[in-house]
Every structure is written in C-alpha cells, then in structure tokens.
Specification:
This protein is mostly helical and 268 residues long. The protein is built from 9 helices and 9 strands. Helix 5 packs across helix 9 and helix 6 crosses helix 9. The structure holds protoporphyrin IX containing FE.
C-alpha cells in the first residue's frame, strides 16, 4: 500500500510490532490500535504529503488515492484517504491468514478432500473454502448494527438504539440450517442453490459487507491448492486445535502443528 521503499511503512510496521501485535488476546489489540492510531495517522499524513510534493516518485495505493478525482474534478479529502488506507491495513491480512490456517488444518484431517483438490475441479475448491468459512468464519460476529427503529425478532421486541451483532459462528452451526453441522462436508455446497444470506454470512451482508468477500476466498483457495500441490498434509494430533483469540479473530492455537509430506512441519 505504501510501497516497499516508504520510510513510513517501516515506522508503521514498528508500531504494530511494538505496541499492537504484542498482545493479541481478546480486545487488547483493538485497544492498543486505538491508542496508536494518532501516531499511525501522522505517519500516513506525512507519506501522503510526500506523494503530493512528488507525485511521480511512487505508484502505490496512497499515490493512487491522492490522484483520484470525483465527477467535479475535486480530490478526496486527506481524512478520507487516510481512513481508506487505515481500514485496509487492519482488515485485510490477518483474516485471510487465519482462514488459510483453518483451511490447512481441515485439509490435514481430510486426505480425501486433498485428493479431490489435486484433481482440480474449481467448484470443489470453492465448496471447500465455503465449508471452512462455515465452520471457522474467522470473525465470531459481523459488525454491530444500531437499530434506528424497533424491530420484532422471533417474538422479541428490540428497541431503537440497541446494537445487534448477528453471530455467524453460532448460526453456521445450527442443525436446522445445516445437516450434521459439526462435520466438515464441502459437498453440502455443491449442486444446490446458495444458502440464504441469513443462514450463511462469513462476510456479513448488505451495505457493510466485507470488501474482501471475493478476493479473500480466492487467496484461501490459492493457499490450499498450493499446499496440496506440494505434498500430503497430515495432522499431528487427533484433537482439533483449540480456538484462540487473535485480536478480534478466532484462530487455531499456535501450539498446533500439521505435517507436510512427513518431512516439513509447519505451525498453523
Ligand atoms: C477470509 C477472510 C475475511 C473474512 C472472513 C472477512 C470477514 C469480514 C466480516 C464478517 C466483516 C463484517 C461485515 C459486516 O458487518 O457485514 C468484514 C468487514 C470488512 N472487511 Fe473483511 N474479511 C476477510 C478478508 C478481508 C480482506 C482481504 C479485505 C480487504 C481487501 C477485507 C476488508 C474488509 C473491510 C474494509 C470491511 C469493513 C466493511 C464496512 O464496514 O463497510 N476483509 N470482513
């Protein structure tokens, strides 16, 4: 986003390493990020000013956002540009890495799924990715929505002003929506109409749906297909990995390992 050579990139990375990634339990990372936000924004502002002073020097996200013009020829406000960069910095990478870790763990437990992936049917790879995100949606809930008017939900009156955060983790495990919900069965996504958006929503929905809802599954599929092309993945323990908090995400425990081809061991 900031280009490999940007000094701001190294300084922002240092802030993440020293202050934010040190403790990823529950909401601690979020609190640390809120505190570090002014310092990060100041660095981004300096980088943005540098792009404006020398627009030919870089071709990166910041430069492109700085170069955008609306229909009237007006540039974006600095605050909007910095907000976009900040949003992508905190939303994109970790969620994909965590989803890929869950995917590799599931593959390691299901040799038959690895074999089918190697056979290369694209809709099967897509179904595997969907099933991984059904059981491990990475985020336990979508973003909260504050009600502007009262609503009735299943006979309960919920007042205006209340914030609702639908929990995809629980909905995806409902037996009335998914047969044998705790079993890993990619086939459930094949040869049927898509599940209702209220039943399956790993990327949330409507106006605030995940911006990476197309890119992220493509990346996870590439990781899965790259891994099975390298060799056979095997779990090193029968039990499933413990679920740990990774900031706001639900990740497999780092103490859990999978083996690739009996010679390379990778922690997920
Ligand atoms: C497997 C990986 C990912 C998962 C499971 C995931 C999931 C989600 C979920 C559940 C939300 C909340 C949506 C809602 O409240 O309706 C969200 C928001 C968001 N995601 Fe992702 N995400 C992933 C990867 C990405 C990537 C790669 C990007 C960027 C390219 C991204 C950018 C965003 C942004 C910008 C938002 C906020 C949208 C808004 O509030 O308007 N996400 N994501």
């Amino acid at each position: 986003m900031l280009g490999e050579s940007a000094a701001a990139r190294a300084q922002i990375l240092a802030i993440f390493e020293d202050r934010i990634w040190r403790d990823l339990r529950a909401w601690k990372a979020w609190t640390a990020l809120s505190r570090a936000r002014p310092a990060i924004l100041a660095l981004l502002q300096a980088a943005l000013d540098a792009r404006r002073a020398d627009p030919d020097a870089h071709d990166d996200l910041l430069a492109r956002l700085a170069g955008l013009r609306d229909a009237d020829g007006a540039a974006l406000d600095d605050a909007v540009i910095l907000d976009q960069v900040m949003m992508l910095t905190i939303t994109a990478g970790d969620a994909v890495a965590v989803a890929a870790a869950w995917a590799l763990d599931r593959l390691a437990r299901h040799g038959e799924v690895q074999a089918q992936l190697r056979a290369g049917a694209p809709d099967y790879a897509e179904a595997v990715c969907r099933e991984v995100l059904r059981l491990h949606p990475v985020l336990p809930t979508i973003s909260g929505r504050r009600l502007t008017a009262p609503v009735d939900i299943l006979g309960h009156r919920v007042a205006a002003g209340v914030t609702l955060a639908p929990c995809e983790y629980l909905v995806h495990r409902r037996a009335d929506l998914f047969e044998a919900p705790l079993e890993f069965r990619p086939e459930r996504f094949l040869g049927r109409r898509p599940y209702a958006p209220s039943a399956y929503f790993p990327f949330g929905g409507r106006e605030r749906a995940c911006l990476g809802g197309v890119l992220a599954p493509m990346t996870v599929r590439a990781v899965m297909q790259g891994a099975v092309a390298l060799g056979r993945l095997e779990a090193t323990a029968d039990r499933e990995p413990a679920v740990v908090r990774h900031g706001t995400l639900l990740a497999p425990s780092e103490s859990h390992a999978i083996r690739l081809n009996r010679c390379v061991t990778a922690h997920v």
